[in-house]
Specification:
The chain has 325 residues and is an alpha/beta fold. Helices cover 51% and strands 9% of the residues. It has a six-stranded mixed sheet with strand order 1-3-4-5-2-6. The longest helix has 17 residues. The N and C termini lie far apart (52 Å). Bound molecules: adenosine-5'-diphosphate and magnesium ion.
């Protein structure tokens, strides 16, 4: 097979996202692969098609993406179809159980509905930066085969000072119309304390409207609010969500898990993990991923094949220095 299931899915996804360049780049990969496999006629025909596409007038006009927010919505949120899965993530048992629970209820929503029950559909994710809140929203979208809409609340508030509530209404209209995962990131931007210096009144109004919209939101979509600063939010807010999930910095064994996953495609047989574990400190999942990538680049650029304990420890130390600096 010159074209694999993954190529095919990637093509459809690029098309849905209106990503022409990405679409043709996957198509070129398929052609190259066919050529390597000796399927020369197919490879040549495909290449010819791809090249002729570049000269078609249609290629100069951008394809209108099917789901990309248009008109007034365009400045409010962005959409994508994430590729990440929950199994790629390092999560505590509590967080994983809660996320799986959401998936189970969402997948059996029709059965719950027969009994007048709604699935969990309003989530609050809280915890330090880089612990996987955004990635979890993406993974939920992927597992449920739904698009992910992201609304950056801090941007929304500063951009539409005075009319944020009206903009939020537009967003929640979409929540009702288009089944998807809606990630309201930087949710603490609605906390009065964060805006103490600025316009407290505006933040309060926006928070109140958000909570009203949330209360009446359609259970067909998944509304996910995420915050790095739960202390800026009133505790009473938690009650407004069906599920509250607390993310934590990884402990040593979770940290090693993150490093190993990121380096899975490289040779790590020589690594002394117990020594590495001593350097993981207070680094977040995101920072550990970066350290693993730095170590990997170091090894690749030195024309070596094996990840060494020293390379990893140095990369971790460097990350922690950045963290403290
Ligand atoms: N729990 C996790 N497991 C594996 N990788 C993670 C995890 N959390 C974060 N990462 C890595 O860090 C990146 C940024 O994480 P993100 O989800 O944006 O963090 P947050 O939204 O909590 O600030 C992710 O794209 C991923 O590469
Ligand atoms: Mg995030």
């Amino acid at each position: 097979m010159a074209i694999t299931a993954d190529h095919f899915k990637a093509l459809v996804r690029r098309h849905m996202e209106g990503d022409d360049q990405g679409f043709y780049s996957v198509a070129r990969q398929v052609a190259a692969r066919a050529a390597r496999e000796g399927k020369n006629i197919f490879a040549a025909e495909l290449k010819e098609l791809i090249e002729s596409a570049g000269t078609q007038p249609a290629a100069q006009l951008r394809t209108v993406p099917i789901q990309q927010p248009r008109g007034e919505l365009a400045g409010l949120m962005s959409v994508n179809y994430p590729d990440v899965t929950l199994s790629m993530m390092t999560l505590t048992r509590d967080v994983r159980t809660k996320l799986e629970r959401v998936l189970t209820e969402q997948r059996t929503a029709h059965r719950l509905a027969e009994h007048g029950l709604d699935p969990i559909y309003r989530l609050l994710l809280m915890g330090p930066p880089g612990t996987g809140k955004s990635m979890s929203a993406a993974a939920l979208a992927h597992e449920l085969k739904l698009p992910l809409f992201t609304i950056q609340l801090d941007v929304l508030i500063s951009k539409y000072m005075g009319e944020t509530a009206a903009k939020l209404r537009l967003v929640f209209d979409t929540v009702a119309e288009t089944r998807a995962v809606y990630l309201f990131d930087e949710f603490d931007a609605l906390g009065a304390e964060r805006t103490a210096g600025n316009d407290v009144g505006e933040a309060r109004r926006v928070l109140n409207s958000f909570l009203q919209f949330l209360e009446h939101a359609a259970p067909t979509s998944l509304v996910v609010a995420a915050t790095n600063h739960p202390q800026l939010l009133d505790k009473a807010l938690n009650r407004r969500f069906d599920q509250v999930i607390a993310y934590e910095l990884p402990d040593r064994s979770a940290a090693i898990d993150v490093l190993k996953s990121r380096l899975a495609q490289l040779d790590t047989r020589g690594v002394k993990w117990s020594e590495v574990a001593e350097q993981t400190g207070e680094l977040s999942h995101a920072e550990l991923v970066r350290a693993a990538e730095a170590a990997a680049k170091h090894v690749v650029l030195a024309n070596r094949k094996r990840i060494t304990t020293t390379a990893l420890m140095n990369a971790l130390r460097e990350r922690r220095r950045l963290d403290n600096g």
